[in-house]
Amino acid sequence: MARQTKQKNIVRKRSYPAARLARQQQPLAPEPNRLVKVWRRVLERRLRTRLRAKVAIEIHDNTHTMLTFQRQRALWRLRLHHMFLAAPDDVLQALAEFVREGDAEASLRLDRFIERNKAYIRRVSPAQMRKRLRLDPVGRHHDLGRIFERLNERYFESRISAAITYGPAPRVKGPRKSIKMGSYSADSKVIRIHPALDQPVVPRYFVEWIVFHEMLHHVYRARRGEDGRRCVHPPEFMEHERRFHDFKRAQAWELENLDLLLRARIGD
Ligand SMILES: [Zn+2]
Q1: Which branch of life, at top level (predicted)?
Q2: What is the CATH number of domain 126-263?
Q3: Residue 6 alpha carbon to ligand 1 centre in Å
Q4: What is the residue-averaged pLDDT of the chain?
Q5: Selection from 51, 153, 144 nearest residue 92 by Cα
């Protein structure tokens, strides 16, 4: 019986050109990575027929965002959680319909698939993630920790448990073309505020508004709208944001002073 295993190697007896043989003898990548590569290619092929276009897939182990995609000319780029590697055909069909048309029904089927497979989503506690991030909330002019605490008391009954910090100063030459003033990571529960806001000319109520906005991202998670698209600012979010005490004033300040923020030099 032991002889039988040998037969499986029969393919190797085919003669290869020398160069190809040399390539074959290169050490193989570690087994799990190699397997993921193979499965990823299989998945690309399965989706290519359904999308009738070229597909490039990146596999990740994210804890929150399970899939993202974008079109680059004739190519679809997808970033997918590894649970999709072994997805059955009906799920791939839903994925293709969702990518191609933003189909709402397909979106629901995907949600159900993700729900069924959530055991495969890595668990990382927010505390673990925060530990890895260096938090720097104090600033020279605006103490984000205090601002956060006061807003938390005033608007949220101190129920929001998130960390806050100034983000690293992104390196840019000359004036910026746009500025992302704040962000919220649902994975680590960390609010990041752009360091350009830490200037004496930036009024406190403006910084408060940006922090308030990011706190609302903690309250209202992004969800898929009726059209199947991801909606990061659902109507109830927008409605809630208008309750901020200096909402109009902060908006007006932004309109007048955006240029000042775009030109801010950070770290000097
Ligand atoms: Zn937002």
Answers
A1: Bacteria
A2: 3.30.2010.10
A3: 61
A4: 86
A5: 51
